[in-house]
Amino acid sequence: MTAKHAPTVRELLLEAAATIGRSRSIDHWQPSQSRWDAEELMIEVLGRPLDAAMRRSAISAAERRRFATMIARRVDGEPVAQIRGHFEFRGLDLHVRRGVFAPRASSELLAAEAISALRRAPRQRIGVDVATGAGPMALAMAHEVRSADVWGLDISPAAIRLCRQNARRIGAANAHFRVSDMLSALPSRLRDSVSVMTVHPPYVARNEVRILPREIRDFEPLHTLTDGSDDGLGMVRELAAAAHRWLRPGGVLLVEIGTYLARSCATTLRHGGLVDVRSKRDSLGVTRVISGLRPR
Ligand SMILES: C[S@@+](CC[C@H](N)C(=O)[O-])C[C@H]1O[C@@H](n2cnc3c(N)ncnc32)[C@H](O)[C@@H]1O
After folding, report:
1. pTM: predicted TM-score of the whole model, two decimal places
2. Collapsing DSSP states into helix, strand and coil, what is residue 241?
3. Which end of the chain is more exposed for a tag (fewer CB within 10 A), N or C?
């Protein structure tokens, strides 16, 4: 009888990617996503990058079991970031926790736009991220523009606790976080002085939540997905109307939104009195960043 060889990392990855690819809990909107998911989870198990030698080698039985458990959770729909417990956003390793919206790679465009606007802004530079979640935008701004003071606001106390932990971990002493319904907890001394305001709102229309893939619907809290409005733009309307009381003249509001909402979001910003409204598409083609300025 020949002894069965222990599977190599490469074989485990191929099998795991195929299993993930068959899951009906996952959207599968990117062809290579199953493979990337399997690789990310393997890296988590091994604690090091996957080079060619690593792919050819076998791993221990304990590592195989841990990998299999993670793959089963992914097949059930749980997002990779929640399984790993952390997510890399613009080079920052951020902690992620169930109950707080997990940052997405698609939000990197919003962060990039916000950071370059903040760098261009005259001093005193102030950034505000509304609906900050685990804090990716606020923390990226604070980390990359050290001369700025950045405020992250979220209605969820669990999100704000996580933001503060993430800020301590990356040493972002210039990031401040408040539990806040919209802008309600932003200090009034910041009126007319905000250089850049960002928001990635819960923009799924109320009636469309039920048709979201299980990996989103069942693993992110409802208030992180929808603001309860019919069109998904309730929060954007509120913010567009309030922004000019907080932005300095020439300051910018940046909104991350689904591509299908880009045009109505731009109209909403114009109705709020913002000017020079523009739309920029991310390289993945899923989101857009709509920007508008407070008139000078
Ligand atoms: C789509 S998530 C975005 C989180 C984060 N900005 C990101 O990109 O990862 C929307 C966030 O809006 C927050 N939120 C919902 N209603 C809010 C409100 N009225 N005021 C402030 N934040 C709110 C949720 O708690 C959630 O963290």
Report:
1. 0.94
2. helix
3. N
